[in-house]
């Protein structure tokens, strides 16, 4: 079969580095750091942003200088740290304006009640607040303060005003605060702020779409201590769920047992067996525009499940297995009766005759697209961070994605979904 790129495809793969982080290579980010004990956590956020390839420029308030030195930020960002409004003007370039113009995103973390209050009232009396006023980039605040300051109606009104104006907030979390109080006020984890930053920068080309993704293995219980399963880690399905969410879709992730945490912002349903997965899939399919079945469903289950542990008695034993429902095959039949018909994507895990087997599954399961991967390769398939996939489409076209990280492949699969939805 010839490998042809379907026409009208938009290049919008979410760029992911080898470390699995989203590449922000072409992005300029301003990181504003205010004076609070959480200022040290901004160092970790800076590290995540630079590791993802972003060009980060740090602005510190005077109060922030009391908590951490500019040298730390300068070393990790490889850029000079901005602390003075007038020094920059002396450089014959209006520094804060040129920085404000170049930014793709402005993050203030930690953001204090004082700085948020000043911005809410248009006060621009230092390098940070002046640059905030001058930028047209999206702004993400990650507040951190004492719980009583955070719940103070004056602060809440200021935050509400900024939210109404389109500013983004990553709410502080509950915990024991440096001031000795317990409650909401701790800076959100750097990883959470990073994910919100990626969210703010990602084009929302799946907005308005509801996508169901199944992931991980199923487990078919033999007795209370044993089960039949497979090597699926769930990484591919979870990468798809994260990428679809970042691109604006409403995501329902139905997952078998895995060691992974659910991506932020997705509706998460856990199941154990194929029969349980089937009932959750069928309960939700009518709400979905797209269904992606990345799960490695066990084809057979024991005819009976022993309620007590089976004891070893004989030298050999036999177990009768019965076929599990083929969920995707049922879906393929069922969606024909739905209007609009959801876009159906299957996976084919193969160890031989990849093209023939994938094409057969595409046809027999009535799919729009199938992601075929050769799981006999050490860098593809189960339990690794990379994959080698060929995508086959209903119209006979296909696309060889080559070796990619699972995050990159998730982006590539969703690019094709977007292109095909646009054609429908
Ligand atoms: N699938 C499913 N229900 C099953 C078995 C598979 O929904 N009982 C789905 C998988 O989620 C995947 C696709 O069907 O999207 C293909 O799965 P795969 O394991 O590659 O193939 P099978 O259909 O099980 O066929 P075989 O095991 O013979 O290769």
Distance from first to last alpha carbon: 24 Å
CATH homologous superfamily of the largest domain - what is it?
CoaB-like
The CATH class of the largest domain turns out to be: Alpha Beta
Strand order within the widest sheet? 12-11-8-13-16-17-18-19
Looking at CATH, which topology of the largest domain would you report?
Rossmann fold
Number of strands: 19
Give the biggest beta sheet.
Answer: 8 strands, mixed
Sum up the overall morphology in one term.
elongated
Number of contiguous helices: 15
Overall mean pLDDT score?
A: 91
Radius of gyration over all CA atoms, rounded: 25 Å
Helix content: 25-40%
**Any guess at the CATH architecture of the largest domain?**
3-Layer(aba) Sandwich
The hetero compounds bound to this protein are:
cytidine-5'-triphosphate
| Content-based structural category | alpha/beta
Unreliably modeled segments: 1-12
Instruction: Tally the structural domains.
Output: 2
**Beta-strand residue fraction:** 15-25%
Describe the structure.
The radius of gyration is 25 Å and the shape is elongated. With 424 residues, it is an alpha/beta fold. The chain folds into 2 domains: 28-201, Rossmann fold, CATH 3.40.50; 210-304 and 320-423, Rossmann fold. A hairpin with a 5-residue loop joins β6 and β7. The chain starts with 27 loop residues before the first strand and ends with a helix. It has helices at residues 41-51, 62-65, 70-77, 85-90, 95-102, 113-120, 127-134, 147-151, 153-164, 190-201, 235-246, 274-284, 327-335, 354-364, 406-423, and strands at residues 28-33, 55-60, 105-111, 139-143, 168-169, 173-176, 182-186, 210-215, 220-223, 226-228, 250-255, 267-270, 290-293, 300-302, 321-323, 343-350, 369-374, 386-393, 398-405. It has an 8-stranded mixed beta sheet, sandwiched between helices. It has a 5-stranded parallel beta sheet with strand order 2-1-3-4-5, with helices on both faces. The site of cytidine-5'-triphosphate has 14 residues, from α13 and β16.
């Amino acid at each position: 079969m010839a490998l042809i790129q379907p026409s009208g495809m938009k290049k919008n793969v979410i760029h992911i580095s080898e470390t699995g982080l989203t590449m922000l290579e072409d992005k300029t980010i301003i990181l504003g750091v205010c004076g609070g004990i959480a200022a040290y956590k901004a160092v970790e956020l800076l590290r995540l942003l630079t590791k993802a390839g972003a060009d980060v420029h740090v602005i510190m308030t005077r109060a922030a200088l009391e908590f951490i030195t500019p040298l730390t930020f300068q070393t990790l960002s490889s850029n000079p740290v901005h602390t003075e409004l007038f020094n920059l003007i002396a450089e014959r370039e209006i520094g804060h304006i040129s920085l404000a113009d170049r930014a793709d995103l402005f993050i203030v973390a930690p953001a204090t009640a004082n700085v948020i209050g000043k911005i809410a009232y248009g006060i621009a009396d230092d390098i940070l607040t002046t640059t905030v006023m001058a930028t047209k980039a999206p702004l993400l605040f990650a507040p951190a303060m004492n719980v009583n300051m955070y719940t103070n109606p004056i602060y809440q009104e200021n935050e509400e005003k900024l939210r109404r104006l389109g500013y983004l907030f990553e709410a502080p979390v509950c915990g024991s605060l440096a001031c000795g109080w317990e409650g909401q006020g701790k800076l959100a984890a750097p990883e959470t702020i990073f994910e919100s930053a990626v969210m703010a920068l990602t084009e929302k080309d799946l907005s308005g779409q509801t996508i169901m993704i199944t992931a991980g293995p199923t487990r078919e219980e033999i007795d209370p201590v044993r089960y039949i399963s497979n090597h699926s880690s769930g990484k591919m399905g979870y990468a798809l769920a994260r990428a679809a969410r970042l691109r604006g879709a409403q995501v329902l992730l139905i997952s078998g047992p895995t060691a992974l945490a659910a991506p932020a912002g997705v509706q998460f349903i856990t199941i154990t067996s194929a029969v349980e997965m089937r009932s959750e899939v069928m309960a939700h399919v009518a709400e979905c525009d797209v269904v992606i079945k990345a799960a490695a469903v066990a084809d057979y289950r024991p005819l009976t499940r022993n309620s007590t542990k089976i004891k070893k008695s004989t030298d050999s034993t036999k177990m009768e297995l019965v076929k599990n429902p083929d969920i995707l095959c049922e879906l393929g039949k069922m969606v024909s009766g739905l209007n609009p018909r959801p876009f159906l994507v299957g996976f084919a895990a193969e160890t031989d005759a990849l093209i023939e087997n994938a094409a057969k599954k595409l046809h027999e399961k009535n799919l729009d697209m199938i992601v075929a991967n050769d799981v006999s390769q050490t860098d593809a398939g189960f339990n690794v961070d990379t994959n080698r996939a060929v995508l086959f489409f209903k119209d006979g076209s296909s696309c060889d994605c080559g070796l990619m990280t699972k995050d990159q492949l998730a982006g590539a699969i969703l690019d094709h979904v977007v292109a095909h939805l646009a054609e429908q």
